[in-house]
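Reagents: none. Just compute today. Efflux RND transporter periplasmic adaptor subunit.
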Amino acid sequence: MNYEPSGRYALTDETEQPSRRRTWIIAGVIVVLVLIAAFVMMRPSKPASDAGAAGGQQGDQLPPVTVAAPGNNVVDRTITGTGSLAARVDMPVGVAGEGGRVTAVLVQPGQWVGAGQVLATVDSSVQVQTANSLEAQIAVARADAKIAQSNVDRAQSLVGKGFISKADLETKIATRDAANARVRVAEATLSQQRAANGRLAIRAPAAGLVLTRSVEPGQIVSAGSGALFRMAKGGEMELRAELSEGDIQSLNVGARAQVTPVGSTQTFNGAIWQISPVIDPQSRRGIVRIAIPFDKALRPGGFASASIYGGANTLPVLPNSAIQTDASGNFVYIVGKDDKVERRAIKTGEVSDRGVSVVSGLTGSERVVLSAGAFLNAGQKVKPILRKP
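Predicted 3D structure written out:
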């Protein structure tokens, strides 16, 4: 302490330093307490129960996914195929007789004709003259036969009177019989010529639709000229669809089908009328012939697709969103034991308004992920939400 003239004692620096130190310590403690209070207030609140808190935190972190057990549905088995349209009975029409020069063509492609209707005529002037000559020969033969019969009648009346011997009578009878035979020969020859003349005209072998024409008036035709017309018997058409060996094995004659020509939205109902008895050894495919009623939109030689209904199966059906695809093929995710995601390879079948049928890979009782499968991984744990597919 220092003594001042005023009689007071003054504090030295030694007494002031402890007081300042206490002040700073108190201020530091206050700051620390404020920081601890702020940290406690900013921490998230915990549930009352520690076990409940742990379970709730884990449940909130699991991704929810919608799952469904598809069960089994009755699905029409549909087999698709493509092929060419053709006449069910394709009839080539050519020259049946000796041929000659075509004088007229009476029909055009697309025209309906009846059985035996003349499609084209061939010049028959020579053949007509031959027939007229044969008719004249018949008249001569009949006149000879008539004279021979008169000679026989006269000889028979005279033989009893002794004017003619029996040998002469027998000669006249023989002459008469020969004359009658010549008449029959001439008549048969004329009939043959008339039949040949009738075959000069090119006729439809059956009722149907004219498809093509490859003859013109003035053309010389013969039996070696090939087909001059092509016809579809009764106008009936067919689709010759190529199918795999496995698909053909499951089909039967009479199975219904729908045919759609290329470039058309119109479909035609038909049915299988013939299944190929052989399979191509290279392509392992066979031909199924589907009969279709006539329609002007069906043109032989055109291309068409067919949906053939080969019976009903009981299969699971899933929406498109449930099916995933990668390099290994189609698959779905199912939620298995402990709610863990499992990958399941599948084989898909028919696609309809109800969804995609699953031919193999599922029994229908599994919990299948209906959507968001692209964001899941096998082995991942999820929170399944069950609903009807």
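The longest helix spans residues 125-159.
Action item: order primers for follow-up constructs.
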